[in-house]
Amino acid sequence: MEFLTELVGEKGVVIVDADLDTEAAGEALRSACNSLRERGKRTVVLDLSKVQIINSYGIGKVLTCYKQLKAEGGVLYVRPLEGFVKETFELLMLDKLIPTDRA
Amino acid sequence: MSSDANREIKTVGIEPESLSEEFLISSRQFSEQGISLSVLFKLELDGLLIADEKKRVTVAFHEALVNAHEHGNLELKSEWRDEPGVDGLDLFSEIKKRRLEDSRYAERMLSVKLYFDGTFVVLQVRDDGPGYNPVELRESSAGADSASHGRGLKLIRHFMDDVDIREGGRLLELRKRLVQAL
């Protein structure tokens, strides 16, 4: 499984086109974030518009991306936060940690 | 979770009130094949479990199974996710890989029972691990928003109506009411 990435100005965007509820999906997310960081991107946006479910597999890798970027002075954003994903982020207070990209 | 072979499945009855399935699966099998919870699918078809409620139940049940597998049988510690391992993996992933190759851990069993009693959908998961102290776990994960531990249980407690941890942490029972009392 692989997630596509896009470069939009200073931002790198990960197009997450599957639910983040398996180890494979989590690994694909981690790999995509790493790819953007290796290309010098320090502002990364996770496009979660197609994600219906997220569980600890996905949450763990989102946090890995967040921590790696933060350690390098970078920032992780998500967009959009809706439905069940929003509920889960708010429950775990991840929305306080990871801002929503309004662009 | 995917369909799999090599599992014992018992599906009892065709009426929603008597839906039940049981699995006895090793952690190695769980890692390779997963488990398909067809009772949830049947409840969805019957209109008893829909939309976001289905997502909440699915996620909570998944977290319970993975907790039993990873923290129970494989004895993996959540804080290892924050520590570096080898070959670009975190320590958790590195040790998980090794323990799935070690039959002392990988052949430990997960006993899973999922049923609908006409009102509640119930998941019981029992692992063969050494158990844990739920109070200690709750205290260690309090306020740890970006730390890697305790999130699974937090999701379970939020999405379920009842959570019962017994047998020293080796048996977890989750209950979700699907039918309101009249």
Q: What's the helix and strand layout?
A:
The complex is a heterodimer of chains A (103) and B (182).
Chain A: E1 4-8, E2 11-15, H1 23-38, E3 43-47, H2 56-71, E4 75-79, H3 83-91
Parallel strand pairs in A: 2-3, 3-4
Antiparallel strand pairs in A: 1-2
Helix pairs in contact in A: 1-2
Chain B: E1 20-26, H1 27-33, H2 38-45, H3 51-73, H4 91-100, H5 103-106, E2 109-116, E3 120-127, H6 134-141, H7 151-159, E4 162-166, E5 171-177
Antiparallel strand pairs in B: 1-2, 2-3, 3-5, 4-5
Helix pairs in contact in B: 3-7
Characterization of this structure:
In chain A, 40% of the residues lie in helices and 19% in strands. Chain A has helices at residues 23-38, 56-71, 83-91; strands at residues 4-8, 11-15, 43-47, 75-79. In chain A, strands 1-2-3-4 form a four-stranded mixed sheet. In chain A, strand 3, helix 2 (56-71) and strand 4 (75-79) form a beta-alpha-beta unit. The mean pLDDT of chain A is 93. Chain B has 182 residues and is of the alpha+beta class. Chain B is elongated and about 50 Å long. Residues 1-17 and 141-146 of chain B have low confidence and may be disordered. The interface between A and B is medium-sized, with 23 and 19 residues.
Biggest sheet strand order of chain A reads: 1-2-3-4
Spatial order of strands in the largest sheet of chain B: 1-2-3-5-4
Could you give the count of β-strands of chain B?
A: 5
Residues in β-strands, percent of chain A? 15-25%
Strand percent estimate of chain B: 15-25%
Which chains share the greatest interface? A-B, 23 and 19 residues
Summarize this structure as a short list of keywords or feature phrases.
heterodimer; A: 103 residues; alpha/beta; four-stranded mixed sheet; 3 helices; 4 strands; 40% helix; globular; B: 182 residues; alpha+beta; five-stranded antiparallel sheet; 38% helix; elongated; disordered N terminus
